[in-house]
Amino acid sequence: MFLKEVDGSFKITSVFIVGTLLVLLMISFVSSSSSIWDSIRAGITGKATSNTFNLNISVGNSPPNITAVYIGTSFSPLEYSQRMVTFYFTANDSNGYQNIDATSGKANFTFYNSTTTVLRANSSCLSLGNIDSKTLNFSCTVDLWYFDPQSTVWGVTAYVQDNSAAVGQNTTVNFTYQTLQAFVLQPPSLTFASLNPGDTNKTPNNGPLKMNNTGNYHYASNSANISVNATNLVGESNGAYALYANNFTVGNTTGGSPLIECGGAGSTFMSRAVYQNVSSAVLGYGNTSVGTGPGQTNLYNCLTLAGNELTSQAYSTNGPNSQGNWTVKVG
Amino acid sequence: MVSAFGIVTYGEPVKLRPGETIDLQFGLQNMVGDGSYSVSMQIGADPGIELTLIDNKTVYDLPAKTELPVRLRIKLAEDAVLGNNYSVSASFIAAPSTAGETLGIQTAIGSKILIQASDFSDDTDRITPKIPEQIETPKSNAGAIIMIIILVMVVALVIFYIYSRKRVVENKDNYSRN
Fold first, then answer.
1. Would you write out chain B's pLDDT as a tens digit for each of its 178 residues?
2. Which among A5, A86, A190 has the least Cβ separation from residue B135?
3. B123 and B143 share one domain
4. Is residue B15 domain-shared with residue B85, that is, in the same domain?
5. Domain boundary residue, one of A141, A157, A177
6. Boundaries of domain holding A251
7. Nearest-CB residue to B32 (from A88, A151, A214)
């Protein structure tokens, strides 16, 4: 040990002095160092002259300044739900972080185009405490809906007040909200009541197929189609017989006599293993929870003819002779 | 019982310099209902694009309430024409894990990524949504203060050591003189 040859009292004294200096150094460094040196300087500037006067100085309040917004650059919608986007911002006040109203943090996300304005907001951002003597850190979560528009310029506004109600705001940051192609189809299968050979224009007893857009993508015949790929419903006992795909129709409207979906205007005959466009169907996006609106459409199916040759047996897409399920496709 | 799933894709063309490579992804979602799916993918690309499936598979198990990335590596040909768009087209078919009835119906989504030949390349970290999001948080300077304190302590110890050694040598000299 390097101190073993040194007198014991000297050793203790040395350690004490160095340790004391170290503690003083650390305290002066970590605390607001200027106050210590200011008080020392104040003590050695000498005694003031005996003149007495009153001095009133009014220093104006400086508003807080939101110095940084920390947010991801790209977010995706969440199917039929809300995407919670959490981000952070720092507010700086030259009068000290205590001058910032820690309960005043707000934020919103905005989307504008020529026809639409969308605003999503949170009026109670959370203060995470100070990160230095003048800066307060905030956390905010704003929810974006599945039907909010895709855009590269969703704007972020962060807002804070000080204790004098002076406002600081930052609108310099944008992010991208991506495209979600999604939909819900109900029911997942169709059933028919008992059929007889030679029956015509029979519709499913659990139809129509209801499509709800659970994303933010617009489907229409001139952009992204809605189409149906059909298969034959083959006899489960005797695969030589089938309800043929090209005897089925699909359309976007219903009613009338004969039923309009059974080969009338707007309906289409299908072919086996071919995606047949439902050209009249449009599936926009919007809040489908309201029960109406652009995010919903129906597909009406019809069996226009059950062949006279059919034998008595079950016909389906799932038997041992199955040609596979039908497919409803968007995009 | 419903049939539902979703695909996240890029709403704008992805810019890529001819000859360069970028990693992109489709995002699969199954957030509605409690059913699981096996999602099969068919994918292709226009001439001028070299496509690699990073996951090396075309069938994805998609349990309920999950999001999954389908990761792609795309290389644009050296002779791609600036300003032209090149497509990567994919079709996803979700087969429900339960069997259908008389007339079973599955759902499919066709999706596309447009690659635009450009004189700069997009940063994939900026344009691809993270699953789940990982957002940069502001760093406190407490770590820096602790580092400075430790540094000061180390310097003080070194000075103390040097000073002590010096005193030992001086004491030795004094003893030897006496």
1. 677 899 999 999 999 999 999 999 999 999 998 889 999 999 999 999 999 999 999 999 999 999 999 999 999 999 999 999 999 999 999 986 555 578 999 999 999 999 999 999 999 999 999 886 434 444 455 555 556 667 777 777 777 677 777 776 677 666 666 5
2. A86
3. no
4. yes
5. A177
6. 183-330
7. A214
Both B69 and B145 in a single domain?
Answer: no
Same domain, B43 and B85: yes
Q: HSE on the CB side for A108, CA within 13 Å?
A: 9
Whether residue A327 contacts residue B106, with contact meaning beta carbons closer than 8 Å, is answered with: yes
Does A76 reach chain B within 8 Å, measured CB to CB? yes
Under 8 Å between Cβ of A156 and A87: yes
Place of tokens 């100085």: A57
**By residue range, what is the domain housing residue B38?**
6-127
Residues B20-48 pLDDT 10s = 999 999 999 999 988 899 999 999 999 99
B133: in domain = no
Span B5-14, pLDDT tens digits: 999 999 999 9
Task: State how far the Cα of B9 lies from the Cα of B129, in Å rounded to an integer.
Answer: 9
Closest chain A residue by Cα to residue B92? A329
Q: Please tell me if residue A12 touches chain B, with a CB cutoff of 8 Å.
A: no
